[in-house]
Amino acid sequence: MRMKKLLACGLALVTAAFFAGCGSSNGSSGASDAGKGIKVGVSMPTKSLQRWNQDGANMEKKLREKGYDVDLQFAENKVETQVSQIENMITKGCKVVVVGSIDGSALSSVLNEAKDAGVAVIAYDRLIMNTDAVNYYATFDNYLVGKIQGQYIADKLGLAEGKGPFNLEISTGPMDDNNVNFFFGGAMDVLKPYIEKGQLVVRSGQMTREQCATPNWDEAKAQERMDNILTTYYTGANVDAVLCSNDSVSLGVQSALKSAGYNTASKKMPVITGQDANLPNVKAIIAGEQSMSVFKDTRALADEVVKMVEAVLNKQEPEVNNTKDYDNGVKIVPSYLLEPKFVDASNYKALLIDSGYYTEAELQK
């Protein structure tokens, strides 16, 4: 009887081990085994902006949790560095490369190398142009980002109720970032009718994407341009709103405005938009120096990209929700778009603190 019990226990253990092994091989066991031994490259533009640090860290963390060997690199806004880093990722045997491009039109050659080597390419938040080597694209709905910014300005100024005229200036991003087409387009689709009606007046006359561009999203360049606009066109008038496409541009604009006497009892700050909900900008929102920022939860974006990576490596089709809008000049890139939300003084606690994106202590430093 004792022998039968021992045999039964032994058989149970063998059976359990067998099914555990099966679970591991089909990916239904612990996530840490899913990508064991597989290399994934992550190429981010720069460490100089908070959001790219967060994006890179989120991506690396989530991929490592799945067991992947992650090569995370930052190119410090130098295209040649990014090209070299991607070449190294290919040489080191990465099976998938996730690329947040510096210049979306400058990576065709190196990504063709990736394609020839059988390496899948996922464009991260910025569409990579002029190559069929891009397999998928993951981003936020960038047209909606612009619409949210434009609508926020319209709502705060009461434009739908016929109020105005108000003075508006525009400060957007670099010409080599394809996302700016969507940010700028979405915002102007909201604001242009009010400009045509005379409720919004752009005293500088600078309303094209080229005229409003900020190279590399550089804060200092945004400040310099706004300094020039204020001294040239606003010696006897006030700015009522500034459409800023992202948070670094917004900080530059805020510095220029403060230097010109804004943010005082006699001269309040205009309505100022932003994007990314960076820590300094959220502090500026709390202080009343910036009106809003479009919050793009990079944790959610990292989750979607990890799902894409896993699907590609399992030779499956990743989930996408847009197959018509993101034309890179060679192909329509299948894309997954996440929904952004605006954050301002009324909701930052719910969106940023309660969700664990920031802590109270971080916002008080």
Automatic annotation (TrEMBL):
UniProt keyword annotation of Signal present: yes
GO CC field: outer membrane-bounded periplasmic space
Principal cellular location given in the protein's record: other
Signal sequence coordinates: 1-20
Pfam families, sorted: Peripla_BP_4
Gene3D superfamilies listed in its UniProt record: 3.40.50.2300
Alphabetical keyword list: Signal
SUPFAM superfamilies per the UniProt record, alphabetical: Periplasmic binding protein-like I
A GO molecular-function annotation: carbohydrate binding
Compartment annotation: Cell envelope
Record-given protein name: Periplasmic binding protein domain-containing protein
Organism of derivation: Selenomonas artemidis F0399
